[in-house]
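Following up on my earlier message about pyridoxal-5'-phosphate. Here are the inputs again, as you asked, copied directly from the submission form:
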Amino acid sequence: MTDRTFNFSAGPAVLPEEVLREAQEALWDLEGSGIGILEHSHRGGPFDRVIAEAEADCRSLAGIPEDYAVLFLQGGASTQFAMLPANFLPDSGTADYWLTGSWSKKALKEAQHYAGRAGVHVAASSEATGFDRIPRQDEAQASEAPVYVHFTSNNTIVGTQFQSEPEVPASAWLACDASSDLFSRPIDPTRYGLLYAGAQKNLGPAGVTLVILRRELLECQVRALPTMLRYATHAEKGSRFNTPPTFGIYVMGRVFKWIQAQGGLAAMARRNQEKAELLYQCLEDLDFYHCTAGEGSRSLMNVTFRTPSPELDERFVAEASQQGLAGLKGHRSVGGMRASIYNAFPRAGCEALAAFLRDFASHNG
Ligand SMILES: *Cc1c(COP(=O)(O)O)cnc(C)c1O
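Thanks, got it. Here's what our run produced:
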């Protein structure tokens, strides 16, 4: 069906073609209302249905119970880096952060604005080895009584991913930046106090951020904050305290339906596993490339690798792009290559990349 370029971009990233077609129609006319989704009031009946359905589909997809709030916010995951500690980290307390890449470092930096004298505690880190892996649980050291434990489930830049959640001391709840792998596999939301994800990797367009949080926590806000920065504001107003990112919410809702139609999160996980396996196996077999993420930590979402030299890396990216394989250049902070293969990325694109990997190695090896 596709004459589109295989888009390996890390984000904004590929969306399901079916969803793009639906969105195209909805731009013109949302469900026979005669008005497009971009033009509807965020308080009118048609949008009432859009946001209610998006929330309901999100809940059924991941089994999110009623004692959790599902919020559609703005400001990206980067705003969550600050909102989380601003709401929940008291001057007198601390939180534990797992440092596994530049996004978790940024999250830590924002928390440091709020931590008191105790500071924020780094429970585990792989920074000394360039964030090449996820630290093991037995390498982690919890602080005395953290309020929460924060981790980045998938490290988009270096291409590492937690295989399971870190352990949480009795005093604490779990907070997670799941921007680049939420709903790529089954998840038990009840293990978390708060989960957040910018949509533009795996869930929809840039401009909307999904936050899932245990309602109980809304009673635990530790300081006075501007209205827009309080989770309670958005929970009380059903994400409509002010004008929400209506189009982003619409598309995210369609993506949830698309995932359901594919068989849900378990089916997504199976497909993602197969796609990633295909690439890692090819990279290992060829003995020309180097996978930059340690075995046991490798991401199913972002496959990072290098050729023997930066010059060849550059040629690889340029030639791949000429062959319709776009967006393979690694993040500017780490170089090399990165193939982002989120939920909506087709298996055929992984097969095309595997063929190109073999071809390039045989011509340059
Ligand atoms: C992309 C990304 C971010 C930043 O998201 P914004 O929406 O641009 O703020 C944060 N964390 C992770 C893991 C990411 O992949």
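One observation from looking it over: The pocket of pyridoxal-5'-phosphate is lined by residues 11, 76-78, 103, 152, 156, 177, 179-180, 198, 201 (CB under 6 Å). Hope that helps, and feel free to reply on this thread.
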